[in-house]
Prior knowledge:
With 293 residues, the protein is an alpha+beta fold. It has two domains: 5-144, no CATH class; 168-286, no CATH class. Helix content is 28%, strand content 33%. It has a six-stranded antiparallel β-sheet with strand order 1-2-5-6-8-7. Strands 9-10-13-14-17-15 form a six-stranded antiparallel β-sheet. It has a three-stranded antiparallel β-sheet with strand order 12-11-16, with no helix packed on it. Residues 1-21 have low confidence and may be disordered.
Amino acid sequence: MKLPLAALTTIGLLLPASMAMAETDWSQVDAAIGKKAAVIGSVHKYGLPRSDLHVTLDGVAIKPGLALGGWIAFEPTGQMAMMMGDLVLTETEINPVMRSLLANGVQVTAVHNHLLRASPAPFYMHVGAHGDPVKISKAIRDALAETKTPFEPSAVPVGEPPKIDFDTARVEEALGSQGKNSGGVYQFSIPRADAIKIEGATVAPAMGVANAINFQPTGAGKAVITGDIVATAKEVEPLLKALQSNGIEVTALHNHMLGDEPRLFFVHFWANADAVGLAKGLKAALAVTHHTH
């Protein structure tokens, strides 16, 4: 009989302390999800990019690293782990995936858009669970069997990522943060300065609670930008005004989690203009939030 993950968590609490605190064999988790994790501190993060989707927005072909990069991440708690994630889905995949997740004890914490005018329109399903990471991974993999999410190794040769043709040093200076080239998209992760908690447990930035800012070159020093800036309720209105006053379109405002403290809202954005100018606009927007410098 397949037990829900909530029950598995309870069982874990009843195990002898020596067993309950045994470390997870992450190779088993890798095998269950069919991917190898990137390890960021204590967090094990699995990329689930929708490289099968060919999405365009305002004439720009969206790279997976810009706005189609689904993922799940685990933060260990002894033998158990907290899982959070963001699955990129097509419209017809939403309900089959949701049914499968809920039947196997995985929470669905949000379903929504991040972009406007994209064709075909991608949707984003945020998920969470706490329990045995192997069983959670199997539940995620079973749910994604309802989609065309690719799990086979990429046919793209391993090597240097595509060149970034805008001045990354000036963008980093303007934004006040260091980025990285991920598949031809320049990515920034900027944590908030306050501790984020769910049910009393502190959530690491790599679990999806940091500001995510992505630049994809569009030629002649320009880039499209998207991502999300994390805000508390009092920060939302100043943030929206700061983005719009700097020529950056607000494309979505919503939650990603349940039970987070402080209550967080995620503001998604889009623009296509001079990369350095956009970095300055984003810096002005970040300035109205409580983030690390």
